[in-house]
Fold:
Amino acid sequence: MQSLLGKEYDLFLQGMKLPSPTSIRYNPFKEIDRLKGTSLGWCNEALYLANRPNFSHDPFWHGGAYYVQEAGSIFVAHLVEQLLAKIDKPIVLDLCAAPGGKSTHLATILNDNGLLVSNEVVRARFNILKENLIKWGLPNVVLTHNDPSHFSQLGSFFDVVVVDAPCSGEGLFRKLPDSVNEWSEKHVEFCASRQKRILEDIWPCIRPGGYLVYSTCTYNTLENEENLQWIVNNFECDSVRLEIENDWNIVSEFHPHFTTYRFYPHKTLSEGFFISVLQKREESYQEPRLHVKHPYFLKLSKELGGEIAHWFLESEHFCLKQPNGIVNLLPVHFYPEIEYLSRKLTVLYTGSEICQVKGKDINPLPPFANSIYLNQAAFQSAKFSFEEALLYLAKKDLHLECNLGTHLGTYEGLPLGWFKKLPSRINNYYPPEWRLRTL
Ligand code: SAM
Structure:
């Protein structure tokens, strides 16, 4: 750090003693009463909070109305947004996506116009990624569980690939002091060579003219500048400079072949973070042939389509059925791409799951309660008090006066999930794996 920061090293050490700031990013598609806080320059939907509330006891957090995210990490989508401005119907890969901070943000900025492929190779971490994206409620996402090496078989497919690489985590030492014990020079070297392998693996799937966004939450140059220099030496690409404002205090450095942006705790209200963008040089290439002979998704019958049509707020997105009877809401412009991805990769979740058809029964599924396209007026609903909301989220016994049948449970207007009132009890359909474990 001394060689990196020179005279500023002492200031950095002082910054390391400051408390870690708390920042959250709101879901612009879910309306709730927002907390008061100080704004973050690089994202209109994000705030610094003066204190750290108990998020796990806030029904708004469980309902996907906001995400607790580090301020530096929120900067990624600010950069990607600038890249997307020039691309029609972009397809973005978030390669190392769990737990989903950047993916929920990327899905938001892509919205109706683009598709996000959100990938996590570690199975245990994939589940939390899936939960967070479902709760966020946008249908423009395909969730995959693949090793980076699997992506080259897609051909030049993505307009933007975000590699938020697994790293030695030096930038988190202030927030997570125990992580210092995992640090060693050997580990830094191991991370740097793993990052090179990841970058080499995914380079072919960036289309010419497309972008690589590379970030880490570590300071050392081996995992940062030296890896970028390695890419520049081995692949045809150009540096990309993006707009940032001086008063954000993000440190940008212009190297001959790339530009870097660094967050330091003595400069910005954030943990340590590093990011850079490269553009793959244009060359002639063949677009992948997306046509598949036997599609996985099936058309809905006219009757089924008619029965669920009023369940949705107006959108261009459309529904198709899986062979197991589950109906998915899929993003409108990307059906061929979704079929193509399902052929080539381990796709574990697509769009938003809406309902399951079993004989004559059509049962709404948990993710639909979180969907931003849910038409609440189409269902019986019950307004939970704060205590009832927590009991519901913890899957404890509920005693509610309401009609028999299926209900949408809401808290302050925000849907949390489904339950069914029977004559003698209430069946709580909140997914057990999302259950709030402490009350
Ligand atoms: N982008 C995430 C977010 O904003 O919430 C954080 C990602 S974290 C820095 C890096 C991720 O890379 C972890 O989820 C980790 O499981 C995953 N990972 C670990 N080994 C990997 C590998 N060999 N290839 C790709 N990803 C890997």
The domain at 289-378 is CATH 3.10.450.720 (Nuclear Transport Factor 2; Chain: A,). The mean pLDDT is 96.
